[in-house]
Amino acid sequence: MLRREFLAVRNRLTADDVREAAVALAERALELPELARARTVAAYVSVGSEPGTLALLDALRARGVRVLLPALLADNDLDWGAYAGQGSLVRVQHGGKMALFEPAGERLGPDSVTGADVVLLPGLAVDARGMRLGRGGGSYDRVLARLERASASTALVVLLYDSEVVDRVPAEAHDRPVQAVVTPSGVRRFPSA
Known about the structure:
three-stranded mixed beta sheet
């Protein structure tokens, strides 16, 4: 129910809204000290009315950062590949799910994410505790569990619209808080994470 409400708001955004938000989101994200220091960033290619990521991916690459992008596996886990520019993306239709843009090159394995300094997470909302509401597929829950098992000191940052920072989202025992949320208007940190 809650996911549908957030998606309904996103679906009312115009292409101009999404484009303007993507530019502002990239500017705010690039101010993050974690991204300024990062050598490897695991990110994703936004689809539809998600907060846009391509400007940010290209800016990170221009800084010399290695950007890893996910490729969805049949079991909803994520493999990873290196981003080599927008021309290196392929559109992949996953069954009845949405089409995703994935890296065309070599697959590096699901564990390659543990080498990332920062993981930029998709989501639908985040609350005052830093708890992220995802789409419900569990792909990023697996990523976060993998990072935890590897004792990786990876910064977790969710990219959202301003209206998606809320008081409270439902959380389960396995959910992990993020350190920060980046929205078009700025960055908010969560000290408990």
